[in-house]
Every structure is written in C-alpha cells, then in structure tokens.
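ok here's the first one, seq then struct tokens
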Amino acid sequence: MSPPAGESPHWPAVGRTPRFRSPLLHAGIILGLIVIHFILPEYHNGNLARIMVLAVYAMGYNILFGYTGLLSLGHALFFAAGMYGLGLPMHLLGATPAPAFLGGLATALVVSAVIGFLALRTSGVAFMIVTLMFAQAGFLTVLLFGEYTRGDEGFVIQQAARQVAGIDLTDPSNRYFAALTLFGVCLLLIAWLVQTPFGRCLVAIRENEERARLLGYDVLAHKLGAVIISGTMSGAAGAAYALLFGYAGATFASVQYSILPLLWVLLGGAGTTIGPFIGTVFMFYLIDLASGVTSAYMLIAGLALVLLTIFAPQGLAGELRRRLMSWLP
C-alpha cells in the first residue's frame, strides 16, 4: 500500500497518524503532570491539584455542551450531588472514603438521570432555563436542610477521616497524585468515548439533530446518556473536591458554579478533549495573578475574556486544532 502524498515511505509510523497522535498527546499530558510535581514549588502543586479536580468538572460539562450541543446552566447540581453524596455520610455517619466516594458517584448518577429524563422534554433555551431552575432548587434544598448541611457555612471533613488504604489524602503529594489519578482516568475515558460510535453520534446530534434522527439514531437515548455521563463525571469531581480538600458548602451548588465550567470550556475550546483543562488552568491563574495586582481583579479577568472571545472564538485548544492540529479530538 502506497503512502499518501507528502508522507514518508515509512508510513504509518507511530505518532504520524491521528490514530497514534491522540493517545500520545493525552499520555504526554499525564506524564508531564507527573514530572512537574517534582519541579514546581508546593504552592503551585496545591493549585494544580485543585485545577485537575475542577478540570474533571469542566470535562464532564464538555461532554454535554461541547460534544452534544446542549447548553446547561445547572451543572452545579451534579457537582454538589457528588460533594454531599460523599460529604454527608462521612460527616454524619462516619463512613470511610471509598464507600462514601461510590455513594457520591451513585448520587450524581441518579440525580443526572432524573434531571435528564425531565429536562430533555424541552430543547434550546427552554432546556437551559429548566436546568437552571433545577440547580436553584438543589441550592435551596441545601439551605433548607442546613441542620445537616450547615448551609452557606458548610462543614469540614476531619483530616483523620480522609485516608484510603492507609494513604493520607491530606498530605500534599498524596492529594496531588489522587487528583492526577482521577484526572487521568477521566481524560483517557473521554478520549476513548469521543472515538466510539456513541461519541460520534453525539457530535452528529450537535451538528444536525434532525439528520441524525432521520438516519435512525435514537436521539433522545443518546442525549440522556450524555446527561448521565456528564452529570456523573461532574459528581465525581464534586466528591473528589470534598474528599481531597476537606470541605463541602452551599456555594458549590450556586449559580456561579454552574457558569464557571461553561467559561472554562469556552476558553479552552468546546468539543476538544484537552480544552477544559487548558481553560481551567488559564482562568485559575488569570484570577490568581490579577488578584495580586488589584482588588478589581475581575476587571482584568473580564478584559482578557473579551479579548480571547474576539481573537480566539473557538477557544485556545480550538484555535490549535484549526491552525496546527486538525486531528485533535
């Protein structure tokens, strides 16, 4: 078989085709995060641990928005479901982290399945509003049961309880690698998912839902699957956040935490596997650096967001895909 025009006679070599470039890219990101842990100071290691957990939240959101084309303003509900699904059993019942984490995942899965079943009866702007209303209902529920959730004040998960198989997750290095493990699993899972027939169908629905339906795809079932996967992954991020950083509070169920993953995905590049991570890193450090310069740090962040929207409308990873890496999934 002759190689395509412009390729070397050794085609297909590892790393020269999209088949190999994508796995190498994602493995390289994970390896890079392992290496820089031993280079960066403790402050940035702590930041990166938090960023990786929040990036998982953004990756979950990206499945629904970036790949399926469904704009949700209610993802804080799923994040909070995972957070309280883990946090309350540990705080009130003395549950250990492993079963509590599974409880957080199960809570997020059930909540996302119910919300998806109800919200997908609508579409477009109505879907966005319905998800927002469900999230607000969840936020108010957290406040209503403040006797257990401690409302806005929140509650702390004791350090002694945050140990898994003898590993102390309050230790900065252990916390970093726990966050990296979750991030790596979710990144590789999404990289695989978008290449499957299910993932390609989600993209087809995003591009032309009616045509996908005419081709015989069960659009509603695929959308519901996307909501459940998205919500469960976001819940995993919420559970991990509570476990690794030892705090759960109503702030994480507020509208702000529904808008943040949208910003991270838009900045990084919707519909790209690495975009949510890039967007989360960019936004986190932009606010961190700007707050060290002025108390009006959101003004600087807002200006940077406007400039990025104008000059990189597809997000940072989207521009990379458009200009240099057309194979980027």
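and now the second one, same deal
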Amino acid sequence: MIDKKLIPVNGLKKEPFSGSHRGMRYLFQGDDGKSSTTFTVFIYPEPWCFEQTPDEKKESAVFPLTEEGMDQAVAWLWERYDADRERWSDAEKEMMYTVKKAD
C-alpha cells in the first residue's frame, strides 16, 4: 500500500501527502504547520477527493511526528484496510462505475 520512505517525516510539516489503495484513500497531514509534533491520517472511500467526501465517511487517527509514529500510521492503514476490505472493494467498484457513467 505505502512505503513510509515515500513520506519524509518532516515533509508533513510543509505539505500533506495523499494516495489510495484498492478503494481506500488516505491523507497524511501535519497538525500545526512548521511547528507540528503530530500528524493525522484520514481514510475515506473512493471515488471523491478528501474535500468532497462527507465527514461521516472519514476515519482518522493521530500519531507523533516521528519515525516510530510513521510506522504506527502505516500499520494503522493496513489494519483498517484489512478490517474493512469489503467496504474498500465496494468503493473501488463504485469508482469504476462512476468513471464509466461520466463518459
């Protein structure tokens, strides 16, 4: 899903990082700009961007802005993906339908 090497820990103080894996989107975001000591990871279903996804469809967890915190965040992503595979699979299928429908 994600290799923590792709996200420099201190980079989250400047810019959020987002991606997706088989129907589950995620967003890593520093909590206080350049003075961040924590970051929040949000997960939400395809197909929409973070801003267009209703809040009730989002989940989040907060982690320390350290290498260990990044390990915890990646483990949490895998845990949430495995715990709700059907939800993400359905979202992935819906995304394909939404794209096809837009044509």
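notes on #2: The chain has a mean pLDDT of 88. The radius of gyration is 14 Å.
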